[in-house]
Amino acid sequence: MKELQLWLASAFLCCALMAQSPGDHTTSSSSPDANSVFGFFTVTPQDGHAILRWSAPPVKSEDYFIVEKSSDAIHFEMLSAMDASVGLDSVYSLTDNSVGAGTISYRIRITGKDGKEKCSKTVNINSNSAADFRFYPNPVDKLLIIRSSHALNIQIIDMYGTVWFGQEVDAGNADC
Predict the structure, then answer these.
(1) What is the pTM of this model?
(2) 10 SS3 class
(3) Helices and strands (H and E) in the chain: how many
(4) Closest among 31, 92, 97 to 69, alpha carbons compared
(5) What domains does the chain contain, in order, with CATH numbers?
(6) CA contacts within 13 A on the Cβ side of 11
(7) Lowest mean pLDDT among 52-61, 84-93, 120-129
(8) Cβ(129)–Cβ(50) under 8 Å?
(9) Element (H, E) at 2
(10) How far apart are the first and last CA of the chain?
């Protein structure tokens, strides 16, 4: 059984995965109205991760971003949700720790109490790294979802080495 250690510090979940191959690169596509809402949106592959960076228009205190990911550019799943008021000079970033292989698409939605949504352009990366497990959302709030093709021993450990959670899970899906 393989072991996975997830380090929990300051309510953020970080995980180091496999290295990215030199052939990985970024491409993007966009819609005209998406560019007027988001100043820029880039995804950069780096060492098995994908670094997402974007700028957004001024936001209200109750607005938040929903970062989504897809392996087919049609069916998106939530990668993370984050408070839109935490960006420095309206610039935000997020790291996808388990990119996967093939063409991966990312997009960002901004929404708030008023129910109005604005969507970013879709950005694609071509990745040759094969992550054999995925977890989301990142950062984790109350529920951690893990998908794996093999059994895992999961541990959540703080920066002092204290184990806060441990569980063995079978291949497939696990909610922790």
Answers:
(1) 0.60
(2) coil
(3) 1, 16
(4) 97
(5) 1-17+132-176 (no CATH), 20-130 (2.60.40.10)
(6) 3
(7) 84-93
(8) no
(9) strand 2-9
(10) 18
